[in-house]
Amino acid sequence: MTDFGVQSTALTVFEGHFGTGQDGRPAVFSVQMGTPGVVAEVDPVTRELRDTVELPGSSGGWGITQAADGTVYAGTYPNGHLYSFKPGQEQATDLGQVVPGELYAYGLQVGKDGKVYGGTYPGAKAFSYTPGEGFRDLGVMVEGQQYTPDVAVDTDRQLLWAAVGSAGHLIRLDLATGEKRDIWPEALRGDPSYPYDLNLVAGKLFVKRSKGQALVLDPDSGAVLADGFTMNSRGTTKVAEGGYVYFTSGTELWRYDLAADRPEAVPGVASGGAGVGWGFIDGTLYAGIGNYNGDAFSYDPRTGASQRFKLPFPYQPIDINNVTAGPDGRIYTNLYINGNVAVLDPATGKVTQLGRAAQTDGWFWKDGKLYLGTYPNGAIMHYDPAQPFVTDTNPRELFRLIGDGQNRPVAFAAAGSKVYIGSTPDYGLWGGALTVYDEASGEHTVRRAPVADQGVTSLAVLGNTLWGGTSIYGGGGTTPKATDAKVFTYDLASGEKRSEHTPVPGAKSITALVKGPDGLLWGLADGTVFIMDPATANVVKQVKLPAGYTGVSDELHVNPDEHVYASLDGKVFRIDPLSKTFTTAVESGLYRGAQDGSGNIWFRSGTKDALGSVQGGARLLRYTPPADACKGSDLTPTVTIKGRDTGVANRYRPDGCTIEDLIEDEKYTGPQLIAHVAKKSAELVAARLITKEEAGRIVSAAAKP
Fold first, then answer.
1. Do you know which InterPro entries this protein is assigned to (predicted)?
2. Under 8 Å CB-to-CB from 683, ≥6 apart: which residues?
């Protein structure tokens, strides 16, 4: 193992809260992604960084707020904890997991009663925290759902509103009685553009949906007061100023006229992006603009003056999302959510920051150029490393799959001028897609759900057939409809699906398919490696590994030493292609493997916590397989002498040579052959690679006329 260290430091501000910092000065508190996550305190007026507080055990968070007594609260992922600190304190207090088993704590709001309220994933719950008393589980907001990304509260009336995804629900919860009512407009229920950000201002409920559409609702009846406009900010200002509630739409500042119930653009004021935090300071509106550049702006409603500027949020080491090895031997990494791309030269150890693309969930080299499958729009991008990296130009976007209900392109394969792309569905949907992109024409075709209700998570070409592996999971917020992951075949000539198979009954996902060293199809289904005969589609062997399913990061790598390496659950297993036995090469700490041309396998770091979440993934690691004394070993299943099968199982010597490599019977004939085979067999017996009985069978085969 070689540790090449942190590959990128970058800025990802999930949300900001404008409040009061040290010495009573104005402050914006930003909760940021990092290893670990942090909260930064920045003075938005003087534009200076005042403090940075770590949130140990987290990778960032989607919720931040401040109580009347000055306490700052941050809700985090993937541990689902709530942290608190007073401005100026060196350390945050970990208050614990908001609800047992919940991994994300979202949308924090403070009520007039001093309690902190929020939502969770994956149980779609709401919770409250009372200082000195602790947490209260407010229950599942909608059974069968997973996300409660935001809440709003009116503690005078003891009411809480919960946005629920991904089927579209907006729950009004009476905190005193526990009564729940879904006030989401009937016409929008089931729409995957679900309620995402909530703000209760001046008795009106402002709702941003997950696709950017916005509504203003009566908070009790759900009656629509205004719609037909868009919002890209993290909700609105939390208070009205001069009769207006402010938000961003695209790159412009907008406002909602409370008296007229009408949204409108603020004339001549460009925000430059989406607001991720709002506050009024001496009558002037300030906003942080997300998520990656530390942008901000101010607007004075009294004079109409506005200004755009930068705030010094500190860059942090961020988890690597994906790794790929270029044909030139350089190693490319892409950051989770942030999307920054960096490239390492292993010979020098130098890391070059190329720039932001998007979160890349799958990538594929072809003819020296790189295809990127990106989230959240399912965009397919194309990058030429011989040209300068320029965001939005190189890599350039070829097309998007979000309009076809796909948000994560994760698998690639190619044959001739065609590139095949497997993807998984958008939030709230079932059924992935197989997309065919023709490089010659620039056209693409999308085949939805080649296997009903399943995503397409792995692809491999063998001969004139494309093999695809699936996952039973739908998009985020869904419950699987299928029970068994499948392998399907697709005829490259006709463009038609031919067959469907279940190689490992009960497996949830087939995350890797490769052509094995024996010419057969090898696949990874949860913790089982299966080997299929492509001529019959029969499973000829299964190898069960002592590791759990990790997700699409589980991989198979066929090494130049002919062994197959399986990486899953942080472990690496080395599988003998002859005996199909395995050894554990690495016990823990490795995720998202990619193999270079020399056979080294590159991983991001990671530590798995008690909840199964993986954190600490900012470092790039290289695993170098054992040296191989015999390149291109003969993998004939049994030892043969001049075509005569001895029945002796072929096997490896520890240095990587097989018995077939060592016998070298093809170099001799007649008496010389017999003498040579006898000598080699004796050496193999002495080395305890074969038994005396097996040696006799080998020599007998050599002696036959």
1. Quinoprotein_ADH-like_sf, Vgb, WD40/YVTN_repeat-like_dom_sf
2. 662
Supply the pLDDT for residue 705.
Answer: 84
For the chain, the straight-line distance linking the first and the last C-alpha, in angstroms and rounded, comes to: 51
Q: Count CB neighbours of 453 within 10 A.
A: 18
Q: 400 and 375 in contact (C-beta within 8 Å)?
A: no
Please report the pLDDT score of residue 550 as a whole number. 78
Question: Residue 698: phi, psi to the nearest 5?
Answer: -70, -45
Q: Is 313 within 8 Å of 40 (Cβ atoms)?
A: yes
8 A C-beta contact, residue 694 and residue 648: yes
Of 296, 292, 253, 289, nearest to 274 by C-alpha is 289
Asked if 433 and 408 count as a contact pair (C-beta separation under 8 A), the reply is no
Secondary element (H or E) of residue 700: helix 692-703
Q: Please state the separation of Cα 516 from the chain's center in Å.
A: 27
- Phi/psi at 677 (5° precision): -65, -40
Instruction: List, in order, residues 6 or more apart from 100 with CB less than 8 Å away.
Output: none
**What sign does the CA torsion over 312, 317, 321, 323 have?**
positive
Where are the strands (E) in 89-155, listed by range?
Answer: 93-97, 104-110, 116-121, 125-130, 134-140, 147-154
On the 0-12 / 13-18 / 19+ scale of CB atoms within 10 A, 377 is middle
Give the 3-state secondary structure of 256-287: EECCCCEEEEEEEEECCCEEEEEEEECCEEEE
Tell me the C-alpha distance between 426 and 356, whole Å: 23
Neighbours of 628 (CB within 10 A): 18
CB-based contact 691:685 (threshold 8 Å): yes
Q: How many Å apart are CA 401 and CA 475, to the nearest integer? A: 14
Across the strands, what pairs with 52? Answer: 40
CA within 13 Å, CB half, 156 = 2
Backbone dihedral region of 688: left (phi > 0), alpha (psi from -120 to 50 degrees) or beta?
A: left
Beta bridge partners of 394: 390
Cβ atoms of 117 and 160 within 8 Å: the answer is: yes
Residue 263 identity (one-letter amino acid):
P
CA-based angle 489:492:493, to the nearest 5? 130
Whether residue 507 contacts residue 528, with contact meaning beta carbons closer than 8 Å, is answered with yes
The pLDDT of residue 1 is 95
Longest CA span, the chain: 106
Instruction: Name beta bridge partners: 129.
Output: 116, 135
What six digits make up the tokens of 203? 């008795």
Which tokens go with 641?
Answer: 């002498």
The verdict on whether omega for the bond into residue 122 sits within 30 degrees of 0, i.e. cis, is: yes
Q: Return d(Cα 614, Cα 498) in angstroms, integer.
A: 38
From CA 524, how far away is CA 288, in angstroms rounded?
Answer: 44
Two tokens at 345?
């030269």
Give the number of residues written for the chain: 705
Tally of CB atoms within 10 A around 458: 30
Q: How high is the mean pLDDT in each 10-residue block of the chain (705 residues)?
A: 97 97 97 97 98 96 97 97 97 98 97 96 98 97 97 97 95 98 95 95 98 98 97 97 97 97 96 97 97 97 97 97 97 97 98 97 97 98 97 96 97 98 96 98 98 98 97 95 98 96 97 97 97 97 92 90 96 97 96 95 93 91 96 96 95 96 92 94 96 96 91
